[in-house]
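#lab-general

N.A. 3:47 PM
ok so I finally got the sequence cleaned up, no stray characters, all 190 residues accounted for. can someone with queue access submit it? mine expired

B.Y. 3:52 PM
send it over

N.A. 3:53 PM
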Amino acid sequence: MNGLLLAASLFAGGYCWVLARRVHELKSLDRGLGGAIVTLTRQIELARGTLEEARAATRENKQDLTQLIARADSATTQLKSVLAAARDADLRAAYQARLSGAAVQRAPEGPPVPPLRDEQAQPAPVRLAVLPKEEAAPARPEPAPEEIVPKPRSLAAFESPLRPRAPKDAPRSEDDLIEALSAIAAAGGR
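B.Y. 4:20 PM
back already:
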């Protein structure tokens, strides 16, 4: 009877030693569940930083677009009033001419342009007007150095122990059973 108890306790001790080794491997930060958690945490931080950059860029673009729309609306209103004033002036002139009985005169045409010779066929240089900075598109303020954040780079692909690529057969050994249970436990935490 004592021999049987001794054999059972040796078997239980050996089994506990195997389980302790498995748990230690599972908790390791280089591979196993700990490594997967560390990798996922890094990816979450990179995604969070990218999202914040996108939000900041969206806010800036929204402000720029709002300013441009306001300027376009005011320019449209001014253009409509100028066109209405020009139309009214033309109608008044035509009406005044009808009342007075005079014919409406057209603007005088300039003298005819003589044809160019071959050596004169080169076009004249075009002069472009340079608008002052205030009349050109509004300048965006230069970001401060602390606002410049580098784009995160993607991590290399890795084989996750939590999501196997191909379906596995039913566990045949104790090792396979422990791996399957750890994968199920990790999937339940999502």
